Amino acid sequence: MLFAYAEATVPKITVITRKAYGGAYDVMASKHLRGDLNYAWPTAEIAVMGAKGAVEIIFRSDIGDPEKIAQRTKEYEDRFANPFVAASRGYIDEVIHPHNTRKRIALGLRKLRNKQLENPWKKHDNIPL
Question: Of 41 and 117, which is predicted with more confidence?
Answer without folding.
Answer: 41
